[in-house]
Specification:
The chain has 80 residues and is an all-alpha fold. It has a domain at 34-65. It has three helices and no strands. It has helices spanning 18-32, 37-55, 59-69. The longest helix is centred in the middle third of the chain and has 19 residues, at 37-55. It is flat, with a radius of gyration of 20 Å. 0% of the residues are buried.
Length: 80
């Protein structure tokens, strides 16, 4: 399946075997911990998605989505 990445030179990935990849993932797991890995992956996915949208000219959609994600300030009432 061609994803359109023919022009990208990823020659350094040809030298990585399964043991090297396992070691890289193990180091990432130890450094960040199991609790933060899903959040890091989610944030990375959002960043890539926003980058692709900005390249295709959909800046307005990105701004709208960022506004949706911002938490609205909660109004507090004082009791007297």
């Amino acid at each position: 399946m061609n994803m359109g990445y023919d022009h990208v030179n990823l020659a350094f990935l040809n030298d990585l075997g399964p043991m090297e990849l396992l070691l890289i993932f193990l180091v990432i797991f130890v450094v960040f911990g199991a609790n933060k890995l899903p959040k890091i992956a989610r944030d990375l996915g959002k960043g890539i998605r926003e980058f692709k949208k900005s390249l295709s000219g959909e800046e307005d959609d990105v701004q709208e989505e960022l506004k949706k994600e911002e938490p609205s300030p909660k109004k507090t009432t004082r009791k007297k």
